[in-house]
Automatic annotation (TrEMBL):
Transmembrane parts of this sequence: 12-30, 36-58, 127-153, 229-247, 259-281
Organism: Arcella intermedia
Organism classification: Eukaryota, Amoebozoa, Tubulinea, Elardia, Arcellinida
Record-given protein name: ABC transmembrane type-1 domain-containing protein
Pfam families tied to this protein: ABC_membrane
GO terms, molecular function: ABC-type transporter activity; ATP binding
Amino acid sequence: MAAVLLNLSRNLLRFFALWILNSLWVPTAQVDGDSYIISFYQAAFVCCYVVLITCHFASKLLVVFHQKGLAFYVFKRAVHQLIHAKLDFYHKTRIGTILDVLANDIRIMLSWVCATMNQNQDFVMHMLSASICSCVSVPIFLPFLVVILVFFIPFQTKVNTGVIKIERILKASKPPIFNHFKESIDGIQSIKSYHLEDKMMDKMYQVGDNYVTTYLLKQSFFAWFTSRVFAWGTLIIICLLGCILVVRNVPFFEVDSGLLTLGLIVGLSNTYFFAPFTLAICDLSSEMTYTETIRSFFD
């Protein structure tokens, strides 16, 4: 509830700040008779922002209630499955895998996955509204946007596939660390009696090196993808600016100056939301791999 109220207050503060800037930016005395009435812009601005705040508040409430019910269901189901599991399950499944699921997978599914899905929902709303507003204000921008998305969507799909494969390798390299710790603690007396400390340390370095190597591979892949994403966003904004210059300087296109300015301001936010949105999709794809082990436990 505190997070919901915080997000609501943040939106209200942003609304009042934009309202003041809007009043100072276009005063009523400077409005020409041929342009739209300033009160119409202000009324449309108020209505759109009220709808945005209402939808955002409702989505936050639904996420809170959903996370509460999901947490209760997952923990209840996990405890029931582990207690009533057959002995073959414990013979085939290492203790490191069970500890990894209980310590990390459930936490990631309840916190990170839900938060990333909610973040993607916000990005989708902002991206769609900005794209629609830009295309309505500058109609010739629509073909360029369609062409860019036709090439970008397959690129995003291949990147998501690569991220999922890397995350599965990273996830598979983590249980051996837990399992080695468990074996070392349980057999500490035998290790000290037979002087096997160096051997256990070498094995620990080996399993740790596998995890660190995969983790660095994931970070390098994300750095490579981030640079490409910002390049795609820059391409979109260059196309938008070029279309606005054409519409403004070619007499064939007759677009109201206020509508053109609105399309430019809203369209610039596409670059701001484009890169985080695509990166959030990759994060969601990688985080969904942590639900595979939980589903296998439930089955």
